[in-house]
Amino acid sequence: MRTAIAKIGFKNYSMCLRDAVEIFTKELINCLFDEAYRQEKGGRTKIKFLTILERLSIENKDCFWLDFERSFLEIRRKLDLDALAALNSDPAAKSLREIYLAYPGFYAIAVYRLSNQLLKQEIPILPRMMSEFAHSTTGTDIHPGAEIGDSFFIDHATGIVIGETTIIKDNVTIFQGVTLGGMQVKKSLASVKRHPTIESGVVIYANATILGGDVMIGANSVIGANVCITASISENSVVTVKSENNIFQRS
């Protein structure tokens, strides 16, 4: 065992950073939505950020924080639109406060928008760690590299996968179990658009699967539950699976 380790080299990967990133992400979201919390504990959140970057051997830590902090107002604006989309779309939603405090889909989007900003700043590893924390908490796996427009609503959240090169335009709604994925898993495709584009106004129902980087779902289309799509769909389309169920009423 020791001989094998000696051959490949023994490196310290600071696994405790997983816990640190979880705490940092929670505090970051608290700061984003609670002004009193931000005033009291925002400095501590900044220190956690700088410490994490230091442990990841990332330089220019202070500059990264300044750029990140400047993005908070725009991120909050987008998240407020996401929350309003949830309220307007979900008949079970009783108030905006309920969306902010109780909806796992909204929480997953909040972490996505923050991690996406860090990825745009070319900060390695941390954005993905944040997205995996959200994944473990909400059951929703949104890669920070995805491009997602305004007024995005995820209903029920569980089991959703949104791949790295996915593009989602404005006013899109998706339900539980939806996969926006790639046709193949090959390392050679790392720099290629592998995931679909969803145009504005699309609704994608539960357990639908849409695969392929060339696939585009046209604006204002409805993708029904359990559909598997590997080719583009024109705008204003309705795609459903023909039921094979035979239902009999017992006498």
Description:
The protein is an alpha/beta fold. 44% of the residues lie in helices and 13% in strands. It is built from 8 helices and 14 strands. The strands form 3 sheets. It has a 5-stranded parallel sheet. The longest helix has 21 residues, at 35-55. It is globular, with a radius of gyration of 20 Å. The model has no long low-confidence stretch (mean pLDDT 92).
Q: Features of this protein?
A:
alpha/beta, 8 helices, UDP N-Acetylglucosamine Acyltransferase, domain 1, single chain, 251 residues, serine acetyltransferase, domain 1
* Tally of domains: 2
**Hey, roughly how much beta strand do the residues contain?**
5-15%
* Rg (C-alpha, Å): 20 Å
Describe the strand arrangement of the main beta sheet, using strand numbers.
1-4-7-10-13
Ranges with pLDDT <50 over ≥5 residues?
Answer: none
Q: Can you tell me the CATH topology of the largest domain? A: serine acetyltransferase, domain 1
* Coarse morphology: globular
SSE string: HHHHHHHHEEEEEEEEEEEEEE
Look at the helices and sheets and give the structural class: alpha/beta
CATH A-level architecture of the largest domain: Orthogonal Bundle
| Count of runs of 4 or more consecutive helical residues | 8
Mean pLDDT: 92
Span from first to last CA? 69 Å
Number of strands: 14
Characterize the main sheet. 5 strands, parallel
Tell me the name of the CATH class of the largest domain. Mainly Alpha
Task: Kindly report the name of the CATH homologous superfamily of the largest domain.
Answer: serine acetyltransferase, domain 1
